[in-house]
Amino acid sequence: MTWGLTGVSVTRGGRLVLDGATLDVAPGGIVAVVGGDGSGKSSLLAVLAGLLAPTAGQVGTATRSRLGFLPASSGVYPDLTAAENLRFAATVHRMGSAAADERIRALLAITGLTAAAGRLGARLSGGMRQKLGVAMALVHQPDLLILDEPTTGVDPVSRADLWWLIAREAARCAAVVLSTTYLDEAERAGEVVVLDHGRTVLQGAPAGIVAAVPGQIRAADSRPSGPYAWRRGRSWRVWHPAGGDGEVIRPDLQDAVVVAALREAEEAGDE
Ligand SMILES: Nc1ncnc2c1ncn2[C@@H]1O[C@H](COP(=O)(O)OP(=O)(O)OP(=O)(O)O)[C@@H](O)[C@H]1O
Predict the structure, then answer these.
(1) Could you tell me which residue ranges the ABC transporter domain spans (predicted)?
(2) Domain hosting residue 180, numbered range
(3) pLDDT tens, 212-264?
(4) What is the per-residue pLDDT across 116-129, written as a single tens digit (0 to 9) for each?
(5) Domains in the chain: how many in total?
(6) What ipTM does this complex have?
(7) 38 Cα: distance to centroid of ligand 1 (angstroms)
(8) Fewest CB atoms within 10 Å of the CB: 14, 187, 227, 254?
(9) CA 231 to chain centroid
(10) Ligand 1 centroid distance, CA of 159 (Å)
(11) Strands 3-12 and 56-60
């Protein structure tokens, strides 16, 4: 059973925010949805979660009881303790109390939150709150786990913990779809979907996406002229669509995403 979206369009506030977007995820797979601010990541996940109705296209998703969802706001109730938040999520998913007790104990241990079980959501650190939110989304061992920016604003140690938690879910054969603005992180996913202005501009395994970058990329110390240049750390990179002379840099996922956005902008300009 694979889940996903085919040619999905969504209009919000009179604007087309998803424009024929596509995504597939299979059990045991992790798909990372990446894209700049406002590219449509949250809208895409909301459609997959059945929270937002598309104006066109097909949605194949799990039944509500087999679905786990982490909203961008983490979904943690500030005036409930960490354990109470998990208990609430277990109750919503109609877990029996014995099964819930055992699962809550295990999840608190896995997320390193056992000592903070009695602490109010409002008093948890950002990283703790995200881990709790993810634990709430997966308390009932869903078949499809949808996580909206689970690691945004989280320190590197908690990010590693979160990835471990997510990988465990995939290992027990859940299908996982998550959004992220961190491209280094997206490289850990089996598949990446790159959104630009609501369109899927790249989709596939990170290595395949990188291998398929057309043309050549070179480095420059100062800002190069022309439209195909972008900053990378202290230096610049330039895309040469037709290739040419000079030392070539092997692109990474970040470069591949930039090139895809440049090509997309060019095509939009041609229309
Ligand atoms: N409820 C809404 N009503 C109207 N427009 C909306 C609504 N929610 C989002 N949008 C618009 O839809 C577009 C896509 O937003 P969305 O939140 O899906 O993107 P995103 O990639 O998740 O961005 P971000 O990372 O900034 O949250 C944006 O232009 C946003 O302003």
Answers:
(1) 3-222
(2) 3-204
(3) 999 999 988 888 888 899 998 888 999 998 887 777 899 999 999 999 988 88
(4) 999 999 999 999 99
(5) 2
(6) 0.95
(7) 5
(8) 14
(9) 24
(10) 24
(11) antiparallel
